[in-house]
């Protein structure tokens, strides 16, 4: 019996971390963080992403949502059992990276992550009332 490795997940997990791991990101740093991390709209070479959310927690606290720290929602989505502090960056102006201007907003909410074999690979949404 051959065990499927997690090797194919690693690039997707790294992209997830680059786009959403932000334990020290504050709401005034959206422009700088998104520019420095080279975050663009998916499917475009350098289009501005409409919204990007940074989770203010460490990797392990986020990863646990994909197993015992989350509730399955179907389609490989898991809702966190606890609220997370977030910084949500919404595009205010600009269409091409690096000229994107964002406004940041802090909140605390449950998060929904897309997971693959226990690894977070997609940020689905934040839920205020659950």
As residue ranges, the low-confidence spans are: none
Order of helices and strands: HHEHEEEEE
How many helices does DSSP assign? 3
What's the count of strands? 6
Structure class = alpha+beta
Overall geometry = globular
Find the CATH superfamily: Ribonuclease A-like domain
**What is the annotated CATH architecture?**
Roll
Name the beta content range. Answer: 35-45%
Structural Rg: 15 Å
CATH class: Alpha Beta
How far is the first residue's CA from the last residue's CA? 41 Å
- CATH fold description: P-30 Protein
Keywords: Disulfide bond, Endonuclease, Hydrolase, Nuclease, Secreted
Domain Ribonuclease A-domain: 9-127
Protein name: Ribonuclease like 2
Pfam families: RnaseA
What keyword list fits this structure?
130 residues, RNA nuclease activity, nucleic acid binding, endonuclease activity, globular, P-30 Protein, single chain, RNaseA-like_dom_sf, alpha+beta
Question: Describe it for me?
Answer:
The mean pLDDT is 91. With 130 residues, the protein is α+β, with helices and mostly antiparallel strands. A hairpin with a 2-residue loop joins strand 5 and strand 6. The longest helix has 11 residues. It has 3 helices and 6 strands; from the N terminus they run H-H-E-H-E-E-E-E-E. The N and C termini lie far apart (41 Å). Helix content is 18%, strand content 38%. Strands 1, 2, 3, 4, 5 and 6 form a 6-stranded antiparallel beta sheet that branches. It has a single domain, classed as Ribonuclease A-like domain (P-30 Protein), CATH 3.10.130.
Please describe the topology of this protein:
Blueprint: H1 10-20, H2 30-36, E1 51-55, H3 59-63, E2 70-74, E3 77-80, E4 84-93, E5 101-116, E6 119-127
Antiparallel strand pairs: 1-4, 2-3, 3-5, 4-5, 5-6
